[in-house]
Amino acid sequence: MTSATSTRRGGRAQQQQDGPGRRRGPAPAPAAASPRLLPSPGGMGPLRLQQLILVELAAAVMLAAWAADTSWLLAPAGGVAALLLLLAVLRRGRRPLPEWYETTRALRRRQRAAKTPVPPGTDPMLAPTVECDPALRTYRFVSRDDRSIGMIGDGTFLTAVLFVQPGDQPLRPDSAGRRLPLHLVQEALEVDGIRLASAQVVQHTQPAPAPHLPQQSVAARSYGPLQAQTGSPALRLTWVALKLDPELCPEAVQARGDGVPGAQRALLRVADQLASRLAGAGFQATILDETELVQALATSSCLNPRANAQHAQDGRSPQRRTVESARSWRVDDRWHTTYWLSRWPQLGNGGVALPELITRFTSLPVLATTFSVTLGKAGSRGVSLTGHLRVTARGDSELAEVARELERAASAAKVGLVRLDREQVPGALATLPLGGTY
User: Fold this and answer.
1) 8 A C-beta contact, residue 199 and residue 186
2) Which of 302, 403, 424, 420 minimizes the C-alpha distance to 361?
3) What's the pLDDT at 347?
4) Cα angle vertex 95, ends 34, 363, to 5°?
5) pLDDT band of 7, cuts 50, 70, 90
6) Predicted TM-score (pTM) above 0.85
7) At the N or C end, where does the chain have fewer CB atoms within 10 A?
8) How far apart are CA 24 and CA 9, in angstroms?
């Protein structure tokens, strides 16, 4: 069963950064490090598998013509070989032609599949996500201590989501004191023999004042200077999504009951440990139940509350609310564009801090921004780090204007951003708290 949340074949290389080891006490700040690209499976350096095949075909054509020992065959063989080499070398939209062709075909398949109606009885707040991946469904799991835990999956994986916020203190620390410790999320990738497919941190931000307010309004005049000085948003929500693929740790799943119940217990074990460790670091981490999980997906998707209420009251069969084009993904009256971070700046001591980098991108005058960082195992070479950024606007023109401003900000921060043209639905799924990969 193919799912839009599964890893795209021939996809981009993931990025690697050496993860910090376990720490029992204060440790010196890590040196600045810049995550680097790892070669993608089926490739050799910067070449894709399709490009290698085309080059090999060109060489085979010329070799066959030469082996035939017929001089008149060399000219047409040279023409065919030159055409194959051009197909391997030429790019369109910063992508090799074979990859561009694949993404175009995939977009057309999704657009044809979009004609399928939404299953009756689908929760209006979950419907847009299900439209992107019809195989997704939510689960309600009751733990031994009678806690209701929400999970979501497509039959090949299960994801649990934690809502994380700073702990209450008499005096709020500065932003540096409220940074989510990513090393704790990294260490949750493997707990008691339970190996996760990935762990994703999603930060959803809405600015203050709202960009549609007049500049002379009371809210704009009050919050404008504060936002310009600190970049403080009106709303900042952080989720950590833990994604379990039972095939990665069959023994751990079998030891807890096997099947779906065993996978659910294994996933809950990891979620409980991460929540406990985050609490020890001064954060409040809550494992979401099924209703809260659906609400988190709806909030991250920036659904229109009026549209939710209207679809909930209608007795008619549910209508599709999402439309994908080459450069955007529209839900109700909200327009989204997703980018992939192809180049990271130096991170750590001497470089930019990751929370500061996120703040730069999430303080844009737009309806909402969603930043996703996905961590996964990279064999013995460290930890893979994949970043996606989605901006949400109220119209196509506003989205185009904000996209230009975002690209200028990325250039100033020495961050490489690649808009996911013809892959906006997979990109949107990568920024929802589903586990991160797509």
Assistant:
1) yes
2) 403
3) 72
4) 50
5) very low
6) no
7) N
8) 40
Identify the pLDDT of residue 28. Answer: 46
Using CB atoms within 10 Å of the CB of residue 412, give its burial: 0 to 12 exposed, 13 to 18 middle, 19+ buried.
exposed
Do 369 and 40 meet the contact criterion of CB atoms below 8 Å apart?
Answer: no
Residue 95 is predicted with a pLDDT of 73
Residue 80's CB is within 10 A of a number of other CB atoms, namely 14
Given a cut of 50, whether residue 30 has pLDDT beyond it is no
The predicted structure's pLDDT at residue 386: 92
pLDDT tens column, 61-107:
888 877 887 778 778 888 888 887 777 777 776 677 778 888 889 99
Share of the chain above pLDDT 70, in %: 76
Q: Residues 174-182: what's their mean pLDDT?
A: 68
Question: What is the structure's pLDDT at 12?
Answer: 41
Are the CB atoms for 182 and 201 separated by under 8 Å? yes
**Would you say 57 and 387 are in contact if contact means Cβ atoms under 8 Å apart?**
no
Q: Which residue has the higher pLDDT, 91 or 216?
A: 91
